[in-house]
Amino acid sequence: MTVVSHDARAPRYVRENQPDQQPALAAFQDPALIAQKGRLFVLCLKDTPPDLLAALYERYYADPSCDIIPVLQRTLSALAAERPEARALIPLAVVIEGLNVSAVGTPDATLWVDRFGAARELLPAGRETRELAPLAPAHSPLLAATYRLTAGDVLVMTLHAALQAQVQHGWGGLGRGTVAHTAHTLARRLGSDTPITLIGIPGFAPVADLGPVGRAPKASKTVEAQQDQGRRSPVWPALVVALLAVTIVFAIRRPELSRDSLLHLFDWALTPVPTSAVPRGTPPGQTRTMVVLPTATPAPETPTPTSRLVAAQTKEPTATPTLVKYPAPELLYPREREELTELSTTLRWAWAGSLATDEWFDVRMWREGTPKTSIAWTKERSYLERYLRPGWYHWTVTVVRGEGRAVLAELCDEPEPVSYLVLGAGVEPSTATPTLVPSPTQQPVPTRVTPVVQPTRASGSAGQ
User: Fold this and answer.
1) Domain 324-456 adopts which CATH fold?
2) Which of 389, 378, 377 is nearest to 345 (CA)?
3) Other beta carbons less than 10 A from residue 128's beta carbon
4) Whole-structure pTM over 0.85, yes or no?
5) CATH number attached to the domain at 2-200
6) Helix or strand or coil: residue 96?
7) How many beta carbons lie within 10 A of that of residue 154, not counting itself?
8) Cβ distance 2 to 12 under 8 Å?
9) Closest to 358 in 3D by CA, of 396, 411, 320, 308
10) pLDDT tens digit string along 110-160?
11) 434/369 Cα distance (integer angstroms)
């Protein structure tokens, strides 16, 4: 099944020998959610239950973190703990975020990238592959890989054992067909029980098809020589046009040419003109004087120093700036133990100061039972967090100085975290008391930092 998006930048993908995943994806088509969490692609077997796919999509997109690899690992491990058959039914999950691809899967799955006929294995034995530590002793290890794509690349997701036979016969590369034609061809070669997902990255380069890539025939030197002999130089037509123009001018004006005027004309044309001489258009009858430049170079004048130069020379060295301690922001909404029925929360706070270019509000929010997490850097005094799951949450805001992914300094004391309850539609209020989980570090690092001047979220974009 080929999926064509109205967004020209969205990947084109085809699934073969897999159940229809569109019903599970129907609830996660919000562009804001896709920009926040990326596009999720799942490789699953034919008999994978639809509710298992729906649970995987819901767990991934409901996770508040934007670190793709840890979120995929937690999602797959949680499904395997609840349903042991999930590890075999869903061997691979891939997230495409712009041109960045992140993958987590079992050793039974494989992920290849084809770039203009040259194949490269990313999982399970590529140079980008690393093994993730199990989250629990009973869990089997997972493999992860990250890679930077380019326009025209094609990702191949399938089972490792099935693709090995095709690779041993020689990877012919992907040619010039469509993604759908390539997927059908590969499905016939690998068998009707092998799940296959092909993802084409849009761009000016053609999306490929399976088959050998032929080399362009080399042009014969004899043919090139014959073509060169048949070509005429453009100098001759230009010379003929110039002579014709001179002839027409002489026929119309009929100037009187004498021996002396011709000699003056040739003398004027052949005599080199110095830079300080009279312009070359001097009439032949006038006397031309040659100006001899002086050989001695006058001594340069010593400029008088201006007041700006004197001020620059006498300027005192700038003192090293000291760290300023700001007052802590005041957390306004949601208030302590407030119960909300919506699954989206707009966090609001008050602060009387002004932020410098490298200073941000560090928004920290975490679900009950999880470590403290920095979810965004912003310069606004509010932040919208969407797609929350019912339960207790804790949040706070502090002022930091940061660059890239690193927090250079915390510029104020962190306010006491506020706890609130997300109920969801049709859920009765709970009387349970929230318990704050201490952060494993004293300075939470944001999940992702964008290089824009005023980012509203510390995360990237793209994905389904």
Assistant:
1) Immunoglobulin-like (2.60.40)
2) 389
3) 17
4) no
5) 3.60.40
6) strand
7) 28
8) yes
9) 411
10) 998 888 778 888 888 878 888 888 877 767 788 999 989 888 888 888 988
11) 9
